[in-house]
Structures are given as C-alpha cells and as structure tokens.
Write a structure and sequence with these properties.
The chain is of the alpha+beta class and 160 residues long. It has four helices and six strands, in the order αααββαββββ. The chain has a six-stranded antiparallel sheet, with helices on one face.
C-alpha cells in the first residue's frame, strides 16, 4: 500500500498544475491535522474545522479554499450543508448525557447568497430539546459577514 501511495503522490507532483499541487497540499494538511491533532473525523481534518461551544450554541469556522468550490467558483452547497449539519449535530451531542448520541433525521437548508471569501462560519442554536428528538437551527456566514444559508435540523436521540 505504501509503495502504491508513493507512486500516486509522485505522479500527482510530477504531472499536476500549480492549482493541483495547491489542492493536494490542502488535502494533505487536513489529513495531517486528523492524524496529529487527533481530530474526530476525516471531514473535520480536511475542512480544518475550528469548533467552539458557548452555552446553547456551537460555532464552526473553516478556511475557504478553491478545492471546496463548485464550477461557478463559489463554495459548493454540499460543503455548506456539511458544516451546518456538523455544527448542529455537534451541539445536539454536546447536550446529551453519557451513553446517548444524536443523528440527523432531517436537514433543511435555504441558500441565500454565494459562499465566497476567506472563511465560512456556521452557528447553531437549540430550538427544542425533547426526550427523543432535538430541533436545531443554523446559519452560515461568509467572511464579510453576509449570511449565505439558513438551516433547521431534526436529530434523533439514540443510545450508543
């Protein structure tokens, strides 16, 4: 496996454009963060999520990079959805007792403006906390402060 990986990496370095090499460096840096900073998931590492909790809110900020863009050169909607879902799900899990977890049951996103700039910042807040489900809202902002998406999510509470 290591030899195949070395060959693949060498081929990418030899044949890749400057943009390809920049993207490869971004991905490898994210993987390195997953490995050395003990990030919880590969997505967390690759997107370089900076997460913080404040009472009933969770905020996640990620740096934007061209590798996260769609063919219109704006942040892919799936990336925005992933960060919103992660912020809302992290908040749900943060408020659950030991032995329980929350999983997304339903996710609704309204895209408002293009995701451009240096960062994507998502903030999630609890709307309702029941015994079987939680409803959480989330908002995504670009670095100039403009809101780019609004979301709501319903999360099932399950035993681990």
């Amino acid at each position: 496996m290591k030899d195949e990986l070395h060959q693949l990496l060498e081929s990418c370095i030899k044949n890749g454009s400057e943009a390809d090499l920049n993207s490869l460096a971004y991905l490898l840096d994210g993987l390195n963060q997953k490995i050395h900073l003990k990030r919880s998931t590969y997505i967390d590492g690759i997107l370089q999520m900076n997460r913080k909790f404040d009472g009933n809110a969770c905020e996640i900020t990620i740096p934007l990079h061209p590798i996260l863009n769609n063919n219109l050169n704006i942040v892919h909607g799936g990336i925005t959805a992933t960060v919103l879902d992660t912020a809302m799900g992290s908040l749900a899990n943060y408020h659950l007792p030991e032995g329980f977890g929350a999983v997304t049951n339903q996710l609704n996103i309204h895209y408002i403006a293009p995701g451009i700039g240096e960062t994507l910042h998502c903030k999630a807040e609890i709307v309702h906390k029941g015994t079987k489900t939680m409803v959480i809202s989330g908002e995504a902002y670009r670095s100039d402060g403009k809101k780019i998406a609004y979301a709501t999510g319903t999360f099932f509470i399950i035993s681990k």
